[in-house]
Design goal:
The complex is a heterodimer. By secondary structure, chain A is of the alpha+beta class. Helix content of chain A is 22%, strand content 37%. Chain A has 2 domains: 6-234, P-loop containing nucleotide triphosphate hydrolases (Rossmann fold), CATH 3.40.50.300; 238-370, OB fold (Dihydrolipoamide Acetyltransferase, E2P) (Beta Barrel), CATH 2.40.50.140. The radius of gyration of chain A is 25 Å and the shape is elongated. Helices cover 72% and strands 1% of the residues of chain B. The chains are: A alpha+beta, B mainly alpha. Chain A binds chain B through residues 52-54, 73-75, 79-81, 83, 85, 87-91, 100-101, 104-105, 115, 118-119, 121-122, 124, 127-128, 131-132, 134-135, 137-140, 148-149, 152-153, 170, 173, 176-177, 180-181, 184-186, and chain B through 181, 183-184, 186-194, 197, 201-202, 205-206, 208, 285-286, 289, 291, 293-298, 301-302, 304-306, 308-312.
Chain lengths: 374, 312
C-alpha cells in the first residue's frame, strides 16, 4: 500500500461559540478510501481544511505518517486537495494549470512536459490541453483539478465534495472513475461528502459526523446495517425507527433473543442482538424498509421469530424497479416499506392504494440501537 | 413586419439616443483638440494668440535642451509616482476587498474628494514647510534641531502627487480584487506555492485589468499635473504642465504651448490604446474556441485510466 496514514487526535475547533469540531479522533489507514460523511455544518470540511493546512485546531494533533504536520504551512504538507468549486486558475490553460505545481519546483522542461501530458492522459483530457478553464464543462474542470492535485504525487489526496456541483448522472460516472483512480494509484483518499449513497458506494470506511462529533466509524456495511446512533440510522438510507423498552433478554445459541415493548407499534416484538441488554433498558429499534415483507394475503406459517402486523396502504409510490409503500397500522403509526419488483407483473403492482395488507419481518432483520444518555 | 425596416429604425433610434454624447464630444473635445493642433502649426503672435503663416517653429523650439530636460523629468517623475502609487494601492485594495467593513473603507477613500484639491495641497504645505507641523513635531520630540528640507523639492512633489492620485488607483484595484476568488490562493498554497508565490503567480495575473486601469487613471493626470509641482516643488521640479502654463500666460507662445499639450495627449492616448488592445487580446483568446466538444460521459474511460498507468 502506498500513501500515508493520517491520525487525527482529540481535535477541537470553535468559531466563537460554535463548535465546528468537538474532540474528534479518527485513524485513517494507509491507502484507504476514507469518507467523512455528514450534513452541512457537521464539521467535515473544517476537518479537511485542518489536514490540508488552511485552518488549525484549537487543541489536538494531526499526524501524517506518524509525524505532526500542524506546524507545517499548506505548501509543505504532502497532501493535495481537490476543491469543491474546482479552484482552477482562470488565467492559465488546462496544460499550465496541471503544470503549475511542477513549475514551482523548477522541474526540467522536457521532464515537465512528459509528466503533464501523462497526467492529462490519466484523466482523459488530452484533447483539451490548450483550453482555458472557462471553456470546459463541469466534469472536465473537475478532471483538471484532479490531475493538478495528483501531479505532485501526494501521499494523501483530500477531496472536498468534488462532485456536488455536477448533475446526478455525471456524478455517478466520475465517482466510478475516482474509485478506479484510487485503485490504480493506491494513495490515501479522504473524501468529504454529504451524500450518503456516494460514500456508501466507494468508501473502504466511513466516518459519520454530526454537530462536530464523529458518531461512528466503520465499513459501509457496518454503518448501514448496524448504526451506532439514531442519527446514523436516520441519516444513512431510509429506516423505521422507534423508541423501545427491553422486556426480556434471553441467550440463544451465540445471540440473545430480545423482546421489546414499542408503544408506537402498540405491542411487543422480537429482535435478535449480539450483546446482552438489561431488562427495562431504553433503546431504539430500527427496521429498514426493504427488510419488511408486504403481502395482501395473511402469511400462512408465522413462527415465533416473525413479527406480523396488518394495515392499510396509505401511499404507494411506484418507481420502476421498486415500490415504496406507506402503510398505516391500526393505531395510526405509519411504516415505510420498500418492495423490489423482481418479476414481470401483467397488471402492474398487485398492491394498490387503500388495500388491506399484512406486513412482517423476521427477528433477525431488526436492529437495536443502544441509546446513549445525553 | 419587415425585419430590415426594424433594424433601420432601430439604427436611427440609436443615433438619436447617442446624439447628446456625440454633440458633447464634438463641441467640447474634438473641436478644441483640432484648434490646439491648428495652433501648434501657426506663428506666435506678439501679445499672445496666433498668426499666419503656417510653420513648424513650435516643434523645432521643443528641441531646446531645457525643454527636453523637463520632458524627461516629467516622464521619470510620472513613472516613479505611478509605480509607487500602484505599489501602495495594491495592498490597500487587497485589504479592503478582504475586509468585513468594505463600505467604511470605501468611504474613507472617497471622503478627501469632498475637499477642493488646492486646499489639500495647501494643507500639505502647512505640514511640510520648515515651520510646518512635521518639522515642529520632530523638533519638539527632540529628533532634530534644525528644520529638515521637506518641501520645495522633487521628493515633496512625488509624495503629494501620490497622495492626490492614490484614490484613483485604489478604487479600480478594489473592484477587481473584490471579484477575485480567494479560494485560488488556497489552491496555490495547496499545490506548493509560498505566500509570495501565490500572490505573484495567481492573484496578480487575475487582477491585471484592474492594475492597467489604475496605471492609466494615475499616469495620465500626473503626466499633465501642474499645481502640485508649482506649489510644493522647487525650481528643479518643473513639469510639462508648468511649461504649458508659462508659455500661455508669461512667454505668450501659444503654438509652443499647443505643441506640448499635443505631446501629453499623444502619450496618454498611446497608453489607453495599449490598455485597450491588451485587454481585447486577452478577451479574444478566451473566446477563441466555442464550447462545442463537451464530453462528460464516461465512455471507454476504464481503458483510458488503466492504459495511462501510474506515473512515479
Amino acid at each position: 500500500m502506498k500513501g500515508f496514514d493520517v491520525t487525527v487526535k482529540d481535535v477541537s475547533r470553535a468559531y466563537g461559540s460554535f463548535k465546528a469540531l468537538d474532540d474528534v479522533s479518527i485513524e485513517i489507514h494507509k491507502g484507504e478510501f476514507f469518507s467523512l460523511l455528514g450534513p452541512s455544518g457537521c464539521g467535515k470540511t473544517t476537518l479537511l481544511r485542518i489536514i490540508a493546512g488552511f485552518d488549525s485546531p484549537d487543541v489536538g494533533t494531526v499526524l501524517l505518517d506518524g509525524k505532526d504536520i500542524l506546524p507545517l504551512p499548506p505548501d509543505r504538507r504532502q497532501v493535495n486537495t481537490v476543491f469543491q468549486n474546482y479552484a482552477l486558475f482562470p488565467h492559465l490553460s488546462v496544460y499550465e494549470n496541471v503544470a503549475f505545481p511542477l513549475r514551482l519546483k523548477k522541474i526540467q522542461p522536457t521532464k515537465l512536459d512528459t509528466k503533464v501530458r501523462e497526467y492529462l492522459h490519466l484523466v482523459q483530457l488530452d484533447a483539451h490541453i490548450d483550453k482555458k478553464p472557462s471553456m470546459l464543462s463541469g466534469g472536465q474542470k473537475q478532471r483538471v483539478a484532479i490531475a493538478r492535485a495528483l501531479i505532485n504525487e501526494p501521499n494523501v489526496l483530500l477531496l472536498d465534495e468534488p462532485l456536488s456541483a455536477l448533475d446526478a448522472k455525471l456524478r455517478q460516472n466520475l465517482l466510478v472513475e475516482l474509485d478506479h483512480l484510487h485503485d490504480q494509484i493506491g494513495i490515501t483518499f479522504i473524501y468529504v461528502t454529504h451524500d450518503q449513497s456516494e460514500a456508501l458506494s466507494v468508501s473502504d470506511r466511513i466516518a459519520v459526523m454530526n454537530q462536530g462529533k464523529v458518531l461512528q466509524v466503520g465499513t459501509p456495511y457496518e454503518i448501514y446495517e448496524s448504526p451506532a446512533t439514531d442519527f446514523v440510522a436516520r441519516f444513512i438510507g431510509e429506516t423505521n425507527l422507534f423508541p423501545a423498552t427491553v422486556l426480556s433478554c434471553n441467550p440463544y445459541k451465540e445471540e440473545y433473543i430480545v423482546s421489546l415493548d414499542i408503544p408506537e407499534l402498540g405491542t411487543s416484538i422480537m429482535v435478535t442482538d449480539y450483546d446482552p441488554l438489561q431488562v427495562g433498558q431504553k433503546v431504539s429499534f430500527t427496521i429498514r424498509p426493504e427488510k419488511i415483507k408486504i403481502t395482501t394475503d395473511e402469511p400462512r406459517r408465522v413462527g415465533k421469530d416473525i413479527n406480523l402486523f396488518s394495515g392499510i396502504v396509505e401511499e404507494p409510490i411506484y418507481s420502476g424497479f421498486q415500490s415504496k409503500y406507506y402503510v398505516s397500522l391500526s393505531n395510526g403509526t405509519v411504516l415505510k416499506i420498500i418492495q423490489q419488483h423482481n418479476n414481470y407483473m401483467d397488471d402492474g403492482p398487485d398492491i394498490a392504494w387503500k388495500d388491506n395488507v399484512f406486513v412482517s419481518w423476521s427477528a433477525e432483520d431488526g436492529y437495536i440501537v443502544e441509546v446513549v444518555d445525553s | 413586419m419587415n425585419v430590415k425596416q426594424t433594424t433601420v429604425r432601430e439604427r436611427r433610434l440609436g443615433i438619436t439616443y447617442s446624439s447628446p454624447m456625440g454633440i458633447w464630444l464634438t463641441v467640447f473635445f474634438m473641436v478644441p483638440l483640432l484648434i490646439i493642433i491648428a495652433y501648434s502649426f501657426l506663428t506666435k503672435g506678439l501679445y499672445g494668440g496666433v498668426e499666419f503663416p503656417i510653420t513648424f517653429d513650435a516643434y523645432l523650439q521643443m528641441a531646446n535642451p531645457n525643454f527636453m530636460r523637463v520632458l524627461l523629468r516629467t516622464v521619470w517623475v510620472t513613472t516613479l509616482a505611478t509605480a509607487l502609487t500602484i505599489a501602495l494601492a495594491l495592498p490597500c485594495g487587497y485589504a479592503m476587498a478582504r475586509s468585513k467593513h468594505q463600505t467604511l473603507w470605501l468611504g474613507m477613500v472617497i471622503v478627501p474628494f469632498w475637499t477642493n484639491s488646492l486646499i489639500r495641497i495647501y494643507a500639505w504645505i502647512a505640514i511640510l514647510s520648515s515651520e510646518g507641523f512635521l518639522n515642529e513635531m520632530l523638533k519638539t520630540l527632540g529628533f532634530i534641531k534644525e528644520s529638515l528640507p521637506l518641501i520645495y523639492n522633487q521628493g515633496a512633489v512625488t509624495a503629494v502627487l501620490i497622495y492626490m492620485y492614490i484614490p484613483f488607483a485604489i478604487l479600480p484595484l478594489f473592484t477587481t480584487i473584490d471579484k477575485f476568488d480567494f479560494g485560488l490562493l488556497e489552491a496555490a498554497r495547496d499545490l506548493g506555492a509560498t505566500k509570495p508565490q501565490a500572490i505573484f503567480k495567481v492573484l496578480m495575473p487575475n487582477i491585471r485589468s484592474g492594475i492597467i486601469t489604475s496605471v492609466i487613471f494615475t499616469f495620465i493626470p500626473i503626466f499633465g499635473a501642474y499645481t502640485v509641482p508649482l506649489l510644493v516643488g522647487g525650481k528643479d521640479s518643473y513639469m510639462i504642465g508648468n511649461i504649458i502654463v508659462d508659455q500661455v500666460t508669461k512667454t505668450r507662445n501659444w503654438p509652443l504651448a499647443s505643441a506640448f499639450s499635443l505631446i501629453i495627449t499623444l502619450i496618454s492616448t498611446l497608453g489607453v490604446l495599449w490598455m485597450m488592445t491588451s485587454t481585447a487580446r486577452e478577451r479574444a483568446r478566451i473566446k477563441q474556441q466555442p464550447l462545442k466538444d463537451r464530453e462528460d460521459t464516461l465512455g471507454p474511460s476504464h481503458n483510458g485510466l488503466t492504459s495511462a498507468g501510474r506515473v512515479s
